Amino acid sequence: MWVGLRGYPPNYPPKSKIKTFRITCSLKGPFPAATYTRQSPLYADEDGTYPPIPYGLTPGVEIVSRRNGKTRRWIRLYGETEFATVDEAIVWIVAHESYHYLRKTRQIPGKNVEIDADRFSDEALEYFRSGWSPSRFRALQERRTQKKKEKTGGKASSSSSSSSS
Fold it and tell me: pLDDT for 61-75, tens place per residue?
């Protein structure tokens, strides 16, 4: 079952002198339900073959990019996030749109892309399900920072892992 979750990113009213933001979220049930989430893509090896698709992920379209005489290929990957209740769906969609706001206002590091917003929402939902303990939140932040360090070869920003609750 697919649940229609739709959020509208923060925007600036064009005629306003004061920067204001509007985040609109809508969702429909019934619950329990699930929504598709964007995951990090699967890149082709130099010989043009792809590694196995990780368990639980669904492949999407193959993208071919040709720039500066080089060709790069990847497959979009999609996951699924399940919501037991309307409360979980609200936490997820509000976190997703809040990520876009926080990135647009440069309050958190990263790129303002859907993959990162979905990842942020999944982490917020996991935090919500765990009972909102500050130690659990810090552990999630540390795990996210560690994953970024592994991806970038040890060059992750530490600004998000030192916040206090």
Answer: 999 999 988 889 999
